[in-house]
């Protein structure tokens, strides 16, 4: 399945968002997620099924002004 | 801590702050200098952001560990968001990750000046206030927009002094004075555009409650010394405001007594 992760097209096997974080080696408690520009809470990631073409954002704390 | 600061607290959404200087965390030469500069600024609130992390990467973890070790309150931003949907989703992600309802709401409408899209800003502010966020809107000095932000539920306003990163100071004194006069009881923060400590002092002399800046400290030749200078300027400006500065006059008035002058 091809999805877009942080702007980059990836071929992944993960059926849902929680599995995607594990497949791509993200610590789940240290990231925030969105799919198709909509926030997905940490506790809802396992229930967020991914489909071909989904756009996923995986963000972490960073410097800001 | 000076007497002036201890007796003159500032409240954002019911939280009492002693420092009136809010500082950004970006563009510093190193994490060590960031930490030293934040300490020198005596800021209690720092702005942070969310950015994409590569799989297996730990940049966010490292930065977040540093900020947490400083024990400061964080104000996450939605910097770079161009639409209401992006800004709302970013705020929701920030709330979960940083564990705070506070959000510095930015919706950028124009690239050259990074000018706020005030229409999107009001719309996003309404959505976020309804969801229980404490919204700090980065806005212009337009009073109509400011009124609409308050209607949306904002209890703080953050007008720009000048465009982000420009260092131009207070661009429109007339509008900023009018805003202060029109909203005497709303905490007003000059956010963005300050380049020198004298400009921060000026903001306080106009009656502004706080200032938020990043580039002026981070990009100074010596960020730690500049942070100290801004802290001193903020305190000087606030103390001057409370001391009620004299009104300017068009003509000279002798300060030395005229009575008793020789040769008169």
Give your account of this protein's structure.
The complex is a heterodimer of chains A (65) and B (264). Chain A is mostly beta strands and 65 residues long. Chain A contains one helix and five strands, in the order ββαβββ. Chain A has a five-stranded mixed β-sheet, with no helix packed on it. Chain A is globular, with a radius of gyration of 11 Å. Chain A starts with a strand and ends with a strand. In chain B, α2 (31-41) packs parallel to α10 (223-242). Chain B contains ten helices and twelve strands. In chain B, β1 (10-12) and β2 (15-17) form a beta hairpin. Chain B has helices at residues 3-6, 31-41, 59-70, 84-98, 118-130, 143-152, 173-182, 197-205, 215-218, 223-242, and strands at residues 10-12, 15-17, 21-24, 45-52, 73-76, 102-105, 108-110, 115-116, 134-139, 158-159, 189-191, 210-213. With 264 residues, chain B is an alpha/beta fold. In chain B, the strands form four sheets. A five-stranded parallel β-sheet of chain B has the order 5-4-3-12-11. In chain B, strands 6-9-10 form a three-stranded parallel β-sheet. Chain B has a two-stranded antiparallel sheet with strand order 1-2. Chain A binds chain B through residues 5-7, 24-27, 30-34, 37-39, 41-42, 57-65, and chain B through 24-28, 34, 47-57, 59-61, 63-64, 67, 76-77, 79, 85-86, 88-90, 92-94, 96-98, 164-165, 192, 214-215.
């Amino acid at each position: 399945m091809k999805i877009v992760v942080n702007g980059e097209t990836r071929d992944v096997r993960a059926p849902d968002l929680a599995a995607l974080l594990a497949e791509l080696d993200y610590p789940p408690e240290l990231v925030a997620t969105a799919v198709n520009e909509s926030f997905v809470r940490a506790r809802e990631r396992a229930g967020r099924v991914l489909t071909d073409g989904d756009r996923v954002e995986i963000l972490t704390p960073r410097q800001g002004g | 801590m000076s007497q002036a600061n201890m007796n003159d607290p500032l409240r954002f959404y019911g939280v009492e702050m002693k420092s009136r200087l809010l500082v950004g965390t970006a563009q510093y030469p190193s994490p060590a200098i960031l930490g030293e500069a934040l300490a020198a600024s005596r800021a209690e609130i720092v702005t942070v952001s969310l950015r994409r992390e590569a799989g297996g990467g730990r940049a966010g973890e490292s930065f977040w560990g540093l900020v947490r070790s400083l024990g400061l309150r964080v104000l996450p931003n939605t910097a770079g968001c161009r639409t209401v949907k992006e800004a709302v989703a970013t705020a929701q992600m920030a709330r979960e990750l940083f564990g705070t309802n506070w959000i510095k709401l930015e919706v950028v409408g124009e690239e050259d000046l990074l000018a706020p899209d005030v229409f999107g800003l009001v719309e996003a502010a309404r959505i976020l206030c309804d969801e229980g966020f404490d919204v700090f809107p980065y806005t212009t000095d337009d009073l109509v927009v400011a009124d609409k932000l308050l209607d949306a539920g904002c209890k703080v306003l953050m007008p720009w002094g000048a465009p982000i990163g420009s260092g131009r100071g207070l661009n429109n004194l007339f509008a900023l004075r009018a805003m202060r006069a029109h909203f005497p009881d709303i905490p007003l923060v000059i956010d963005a555009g300050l380049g020198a400590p004298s400009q921060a002092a000026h903001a306080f002399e106009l009656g502004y409650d706080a200032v938020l800046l990043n580039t002026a400290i981070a990009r100074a030749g010596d960020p730690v010394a500049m942070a100290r200078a801004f802290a001193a300027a903020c305190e000087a400006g606030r103390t001057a405001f409370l001391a009620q500065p004299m009104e300017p006059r068009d003509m000279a008035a002798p300060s030395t007594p005229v009575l008793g002058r020789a040769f008169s």
